[in-house]
Amino acid sequence: MANFQGIAGAIDAPNQFVETHGRKLAYRSIGEGKPIVLCTRFRGNTDLWDPAFLDALASNGFRVVTFDYSGLGLSTGEKTYNPLEMARDANDLMEALDLKDVVISGWSLGGLVAQVVLTMFPQRLSHVVLLGTSPPGPLVKMAEQLFYDTATRPTNTFDEEVILFFEPRSEMSRAAARRSADRIGQRKEGRSVVVPWEWAAANLGKSAKNPVFPAPPVLQALKNTSLPVLHIGGDHDIVFPVENWYALNGQLPTLQMLTYPQAGHGPHHQHPVEAAQHIATFVRGGA
Fold first, then answer.
1. What is the pTM of this model?
2. Rounded CA gap, 203 and 48, in Å?
3. How far apart are CA 46 and CA 169, in angstroms?
């Protein structure tokens, strides 16, 4: 895949490591400019971001940093799927790399992590960008059982990835899913380590919970923050329905929302360049 404007691309980005607080965090970094730190999804690692999305962010003037959570992928330490603890990975990485005025971003589970980072470490941040994730607190619409039945399998076929991250009923979305999967598969060397599926499945559970993210301090932080917050979602997200953000209309004073039609849980993989451009406009606008 061609890189934007001669910028070194995500497919070939080297694995790098920092020792911090007793464990080694693996990360990749491309581009130069304002830092954006991306917290990955359930069962995600540094390999599973669409390189077109990362390259588009870099082309829009960001230093793009992805990483593996403690104990997962190429990182060492104790693994957990508790967002309250995972947020320390993002903060420790920002501290180790001396990143300031950061855009913290997260997809799915990583979006919960990013919200905790906002709550615990707001002094490092300038903006928050959430991708296909859930707000804290009670939900007006829960995840579909199809997600739990599909996400907990040892591996997922392409058609199952379409179910999880795209909109199977849309030919346009299915075609975008194929292109995204092909791009993600282009990295052959220096790949990360797959998240253990049995451990991940045990942490997820077998059915939907309400609330899925019971964190009153985080909801209060979203209500009180002066930092601009953007949520990018799809109109049919079987994991974290976007309706739960709309239900908070009028309560979150800095929240902006972009919802793509005929899209699912991975809108930034269906629309990688457009999503990156929207993020850049959001950050440059400062609101």
1. 0.96
2. 20
3. 29
What is the pLDDT at residue 62? 98
Q: In degrees, to the nearest 5, what angle opens at C-alpha 74 toward C-alphas 109 and 8? A: 90
Q: Which residues contact 121 (CB under 8 A, 6 or more apart)?
A: 87, 90, 91, 94
Count Cα atoms within 13 angstroms, Cβ side, for 128. Answer: 30
First-to-final CA distance of the chain: 33
Backbone angles phi, psi at 278, to 5 degrees: -65, -40
Query: Rounded to an integer, what distance in angstroms lies between the CA atom of residue 93 and that of residue 78?
Result: 16
Q: Regarding beta strands 23-30 and 62-67, do their DSSP bridges make them parallel or antiparallel, or are they unpaired?
A: antiparallel
Query: From CA 148, how far away is CA 61, in angstroms rounded?
Result: 37
DSSP the chain: -PPGGGPPPGGGPPPEEEEETTEEEEEEEES-SEEEEEE--TT--GGGS-HHHHHHHHHTTEEEEEEPPTTSTT--S-----HHHHHHHHHHHHHHTT--SEEEEEETHHHHHHHHHHHH-GGGEEEEEEES---SS--SSPPPHHHHHHHTSSS--HHHHHHHHS-TT-HHHHHHHHHHHHHHTT--SS--PPPPHHHHHHHH-SS--SSSS--HHHHHHHHH--S-EEEEEETT-SSS-THHHHTTTTT-TTEEEEEETT--S-HHHHSHHHHHHHHHHHHHHT-
Closest CA to 94 of 72, 119, 122: 122
Strand partners, 66: 28, 38
pLDDT tens digits, one per residue of 249-264: 999 999 999 999 999 9
Evaluate if residue 2 carries a pLDDT over 60. Answer: no
Asked if residue 149 lies in contact with residue 137, where contact means CB atoms within 8 angstroms, the answer is no
